[in-house]
Amino acid sequence: MTTRPKYPLPWRILHLLIAALVLTLIPVGLWMASRGAAGLFDTLTNSLYSVHKAVGFTVLSLMILRVLCKATMTAPGYPPSVSRATLIAARSLHHVLYLLLFITPLLGWAGVTAFPALDIAAGISLPALPFVPQDEELAVRLFQIHGVFAVTLAILLVGHIAAALRHLLRRDGVFQRMWFSRQISDE
Question: What is the gyration radius of the CA atoms in the chain, in angstroms?
Answer without folding.
Answer: 19
